[in-house]
Design brief:
single chain; 251 residues; alpha/beta; Rossmann fold; 42% helix
């Protein structure tokens, strides 16, 4: 009887080795986890965030090559960041802010305007600034969500924004080509932001999702980050929206 063949694990080269990845909003949650995944794949990381202290901790963990503490929603600060950004970079991710939910009678129109700026106009500004900074074939990645696809009281505005971003990105992919542009749309993700929003209801929400989601578990930041890094490395993908929600929309 012949001996069984010896199986040697295959080692692969890191997929982002030597590439520069910028994460705007990269000090916590999905942004930070994406930066971790990109760093593990060999990327050099440039981080931005509003909170200088939290940004410093994230930068130390990832050995980031540079950081910038500013509010990306401020057009002047965003422009200065891109002016100072050394080209070329390979990939840029804009992490998403939390959604704004309110019944029609209680809508704060100033808050609505701020959310339009954050969810629609900010990606446009980032795309404009990225031209000449992101190399041809590199990528832009925006974070959206699937929650706004539901219909109900309080979802009027977030539903409109959720529907608009995929159309916006599909057109941006043509406008800034050969830079690639994509959207990641998570459902519920177990992040510190989710914990802050749900408070004492967080554990009940986790239990509900484990019992009802087709995948049988709660989606975490690492799940979103893995998809984000795949979209950076797969050069066939542009102009599309990719859901990562454990099948939440199906139930």
């Amino acid at each position: 009887m012949s001996a069984a063949p010896t199986v040697t694990p295959t080692q692969r080269e890191p997929q982002l080795l030597g590439q520069k990845v910028v994460v705007i909003g990269g000090s916590a949650g999905i942004g930070l986890e994406t930066a971790r995944h990109a760093r593990a794949e060999g990327a050099e990381i440039i981080l931005t965030a509003r909170d200088p202290e939290r940004l410093e901790h994230a930068a130390q963990e990832l050995d980031a090559i540079s950081t910038s503490a500013f509010d990306a929603g401020d057009p002047d600060s965003l422009a200065r960041f891109f002016d100072d950004l050394p080209a070329p970079i390979d990939h840029l991710m804009l992490s998403g802010g939390g959604p704004y939910y309110a019944p029609l009678a209680e809508l704060d129109l100033e808050q609505v305007r701020q959310d339009i700026d954050r969810h629609l106009l900010l990606p446009v500004q980032v795309a404009r600034h990225a031209v000449g900074k992101v190399r041809p074939g590199g990528s832009l990645l925006f974070i959206s969500g699937t929650g706004g696809r539901r219909r109900g009281v309080g979802l009027t505005f977030i539903g409109a924004v959720t529907a608009a971003l995929p159309a916006l990105v599909a057109n941006l992919a043509l406008e800034v080509a050969p830079i690639r542009v994509n959207v990641v749309a998570p459902g519920f993700v177990d992040t510190p932001l989710s914990a802050a929003l749900l408070g004492d209801g967080l554990d009940d929400r986790r239990d509900e999702l484990r019992a009802t989601l087709p995948n049988g578990r709660v989606v975490g930041p690492a799940d979103v980050a893995a998809l984000a890094v795949h979209l950076m490395t797969n050069t066939a993908l542009t102009g599309a929206t990719y859901d990562v929600d454990g099948g939440q929309q199906l139930v």
